[in-house]
Design a protein that fits this description.
The complex is a heterodimer of chains A (about 475) and B (about 375). Chain A has about 475 residues and is α+β, with helices and mostly antiparallel strands. Chain A is about 55% helix and about 10% strand. A 5-stranded mixed sheet of chain A has the order 6-7-8-9-10. The longest helix of chain A has 22 residues, at about 245-265. Chain A starts with a helix and ends with a strand. In chain B, about 30% of the residues lie in helices and about 25% in strands. In chain B, β11, α9 and β12 form a beta-alpha-beta unit. The N and C termini of chain B lie far apart (about 90 Å). In chain B, the strands form 3 sheets. Chain B has a 6-stranded mixed sheet with strand order 10-9-8-11-12-13, with helices on both faces. A two-stranded antiparallel sheet of chain B has the order 2-5. Chain B has 11 helices and 13 strands. Chain B has 3 domains: about 15-60 and about 105-125, no CATH class; about 140-195, no CATH class; about 200-365, von Willebrand factor, type A domain (Rossmann fold), CATH 3.40.50. Chain B is flat, with a radius of gyration of 30 Å. By secondary structure, chain B is α/β, with parallel strands linked by helices. Classes of the chains: A alpha+beta (about 475), B alpha/beta (about 375). Chains A and B meet through α1, β1, α2, α3 and α6 of A and β1, α1, β3 and β4 of B.
Chain lengths: ~475, ~375
């Protein structure tokens, strides 16, 4: 963007925000940051502007940067679910590109604010993450970079195994605001005192640790007897192998995953929604000749179908348009509030959409990837199945109790998709690192029940 | 309305720092996967490309995840049921291929530079049996050392300490306070340091009779690729010469070396005789470090064994190393391997491998430090 473009962009922002409100969009206060490519890719790599550091974020960063340098990447939209809502715009974009991104992120911001799945997300996550990152830096100083990396490697490798269901989250207070500069152990001071309003996850952890020490056992996330789906929290609560700072690291990973979870669950809806509204807004903006052509080209780029993966911009937009055609715009707002990808696909993916998007399923046959399905019902059911639980396998802790002498037992709730055995064998040692005792995973391989046991040195595979 | 901010982000280095750590992890992974990496086809066929994209699974963060190959996946585009949309086997990646160009998981691949692989590989290897080459071929300049002090010179080379000592001595003798005059100045002077240019020649020899198939040649090619690279790190000048043989031996260029295939029988001695002739004509041993490397599947005419062994024995007197790499997919005992068992010269090393995963071990064996015991 050239210097004189900033004024135009500011004007467009004002116009688009008021236009969007007139359409009924209801978004957070917006903060648009114009920054260089490198910063945008850092934030994209880290997932958030204030997050702690880990080498895997560096890998993502590098990949983004490489694509950018090679000219492969599409223009970037980077928006953070937070109040105020942060959007990052590339300074090397044209002003038209940035206008389109502004229009697009208004859709996301509205979605974040109104979709039910996001109700329990922390709207001050940027601050919370800054505070965790600060604590992590202290841990790094105190315990060394290697121990920090080891615990993060282990925790991140099972980060998807949280319980983001409403039942488990409804009794979790809406948000916890950590103030920067607190010491990592401040929670401990409140032990024995009446609970303050800020009943944070971390102070609950402290409670649990204390309760466990005095009474022997507590269940937090599963008030009723049963098996915990929240592997991370189970480990935080029950592992006898961890130091307090390590529990803190794991629970930060846990909380951040809960924060990201609704985004995983609504990818198609959310991108489709944002694309729908950016198109509406940009078309209402009355672009002149060249801008209109450029805009059409940009949108075509974003919604370009891909042979090997479903493009959420493309399919999401097609479903929203289909809903609008068949049920009207009011219905769209209702859907954006109540549904997530699984129900969105289940209810609104029909043959019209499948035909319009040229959707198919393919699978491996011999040495080829082969198209195997064009029927919408089959495609729909497979997509729904694959998006269940954010696209991750559902695992339960099925110990008798936390002190089960056989160690930690995890059962894969099998629903037709087998796990990658090589990855099981590489992941179990990480769980062992956190649990400190043998770890068993039960699943189905080639249709037969199998147990993988890591005992601290090797992984054994046993038929059950 | 929303706020438009244009802050200065120039101090934000988190991305680069995390990336640097990732680079370190890549280096660790390279060391851990060297056996796979050194035989990766993209590297051997890279032809001067400085980076190669290779799969390093260790760098994909472990997760409990579905088996990609057993799942159905959604895609978009034309195509009838039953139509193939891509190959499910990994192959050389197309140049500039980005995510989404192929099915499967490209995030398993990392770009590594040849230097990174070389660093990891060559740190394990040594030149064996270095022999003094008293009559060096050439003298080359290799920098300079400050070796002497003079009282004339250029100002940038003033030796301050000695100048001060001179000034002190003179001032003291004359009994007045410290001054520095023109006469006190001392200058460092330098000399060019020279080191002899050491040259090495690799005589690559291969059996190209019908029994050597494409995979055997691939092993040979991979091995020679790294051998040449390694020696080039050690010597300022490395000649590569290529000899092939069936019942007769002849010299070829590099390309022919890996592609030529002859029918007929096998006489190993022919290629060692050709190597001996080549050394006599072009590479006097007092000037050259000579490395002979022979790749074969171990077939030989039984009656030719004695002559072969004799020739190898003679060549041991002039060569730094004679290696015999047997590519033997079925680990059978071969005619030639039996014959060479009688050779005990430290210059002679041989091993038998079944496939390209063992090339790393072969390199380690041939280039380990094991000094000549007899003169």
């Amino acid at each position: 963007m050239k210097q004189e473009d900033y004024a135009r962009l500011e004007e467009s922002i004002a116009w688009m925000e008021s236009q969007a409100r007139s359409y009924g969009l209801d978004f957070f206060d917006m903060r648009y940051e114009i920054c260089p490519a490198d910063v945008v890719y850092t934030i994209a790599g880290f997932g958030m502007p204030t997050r702690y550091s880990h080498w895997s974020f560096g890998k993502q960063y590098y990949r983004q940067k490489l694509d950018f340098d090679l000219g492969l990447s599409r223009i970037y939209e980077l928006v953070v679910n937070n109040d105020p809502c942060f959007a990052f715009l590339l300074d090397s974009n044209t002003v038209l590109q940035n206008e389109m991104i502004v229009a697009h992120v208004l859709g996301h911001s509205d979605f974040f604010k109104n979709n039910a799945r996001f109700r329990y997300t922390n709207r001050r996550m940027v601050d919370s993450m800054a505070a965790s990152a600060e604590r992590f830096r202290k841990y790094e100083e105190m315990y060394g970079i290697n121990r920090m990396e080891e615990i993060l490697d282990a925790a991140l490798s099972i980060q998807e195994h949280v319980d983001a269901s409403w039942r488990s989250r409804a009794h979790v207070p809406e948000q916890e605001v950590k103030k920067a500069g607190r010491s990592p152990y401040d929670d401990l001071w409140s032990i024995g005192q009446p609970k303050s309003e800020e009943n944070s996850t971390r102070s609950r952890i402290a409670d649990v640790i204390r309760n466990e020490r005095s009474t022997g056992a507590t269940r937090l996330h599963s008030p009723e007897p049963g098996h915990s789906k929240d592997l991370l929290m189970y480990i935080v609560e029950h592992s006898r192998h961890l130091e307090d700072w390590e529990r803190d690291v794991i629970s930060v990973v846990h909380d951040e995953m809960l924060y990201f979870w609704p985004q995983l669950e609504t990818k198609i809806m959310n991108e489709g929604w944002a694309t729908y509204w950016h198109t509406e807004l940009m078309q209402a903006m009355d672009l002149d000749g060249q801008d209109a052509i450029d805009f059409a080209q940009l949108t075509a780029g974003v919604t370009q179908p891909n042979r090997y993966t479903l493009n959420p911009y493309n399919v999401g937009l097609a479903i929203w348009r289909d809903i609008e055609r068949k049920y009207g715009r009011e219905k769209m707002f209702e859907v954006r509030e109540c549904e997530s990808d699984t129900s969105f696909l289940r209810n609104y993916l029909n043959q019209d959409v499948v035909d319009e998007c040229d959707l198919y399923l393919y699978e491996k046959r011999g040495i080829d990837w082969v198209v195997v399905e064009r029927d919408y019902e089959v495609i729909r059911d497979i997509l729904v199945q694959q998006r269940t639980n954010g696209g991750f396998p559902t695992l339960y802790v099925t110990n008798e109790n936390p002190k089960d002498p056989r160690g930690l037992r995890i059962t894969h709730s099998f629903e037709g998709q087998e796990l990658d055995v090589e990855y099981i064998e590489r992941t179990l040692p990480n769980v062992y690192r956190l649990w400190g005792q043998p770890v068993t995973l039960q699943t189905l391989v080639n249709g037969r029940p199998v147990e993988f046991v890591f005992d601290g040195t090797t992984t054994q595979r046993k038929a059950v | 309305m929303g706020i438009l901010v244009h802050d200065d982000w120039s101090l934000d280095r988190r991305g680069q720092r995390a990336q640097a750590r990732h680079r370190e992890k890549i280096k660790e992974a390279i060391r851990g996967n060297l056996a796979d990496i050194v035989s990766h086809h993209d590297i051997i066929l890279s032809d001067g490309k400085r980076t190669v994209r290779i799969p390093v699974k260790q760098l994909d963060e472990p997760h409990f995840r579905y088996d990609y190959g057993k799942q159905k996946h959604a895609g978009q585009g034309p195509g009838q049921q039953g139509q193939s949309i891509g190959k499910a086997i990994p192959g050389p990646s197309a140049p500039g291929a980005g995510a989404g160009d192929q099915p499967g998981e490209h995030n398993l691949e990392v770009d590594v530079t040849l230097e990174e692989i070389e660093d990891a590989l060559f740190s394990e290897l040594c030149l064996p049996n270095l022999k003094d080459k008293p009559q060096t071929k050439n003298i080359m300049t290799d920098g300079f050392d400050f070796t002497d002090i003079r009282n004339k010179g250029i100002r940038s080379n003033i030796d301050r300490k000695r100048t001060l000592i001179e000034a002190l001595r003179r001032s003291k003798n004359k009994g007045h306070r410290l001054t520095i005059t023109e006469d006190d100045l001392r200058f460092k002077t330098w000399e060019d340091t020279v080191r002899p240019e050491t040259g090495a020649v690799v005589i690559a020899m291969m059996d190209v009779s019908g029994s050597m198939g494409a995979s055997e040649k691939y092993v040979a090619r991979t091995f020679f690729f790294w051998m040449e690279k390694f020696l080039k790190k050690q010597y300022s000048h490395v000649d590569m010469r290529y000899l092939v043989h069936h019942t007769e031996a002849y010299e070829t260029n590099k390309d022919t070396f890996y592609t030529v295939r002859e029918s007929g029988g096998t006489l190993c001695s022919s290629v060692f005789q050709a190597a001996k002739d080549l050394i006599q004509s072009d590479y006097p041993p007092e000037l050259w470090n000579i490395y002979l490397m022979y790749v074969s599947d171990g077939d030989n005419l039984f009656s030719d064994n004695e002559r072969t062994v004799t020739l190898i024995g003679e060549l041991c007197n002039v060569a730094s190393m004679i290696g015999y790499l047997e590519v033997n997919s079925y680990s059978r005992t071969t005619v030639l391997s039996k014959a060479v068992e009688s050779l005990h010269q430290p210059e002679f090393r041989w091993t038998s491998i079944t496939d390209n995963k063992q090339i790393l071990n072969a390199l380690r064996l041939f280039f380990q430090r094991k000094e000549v015991t007899s003169a």
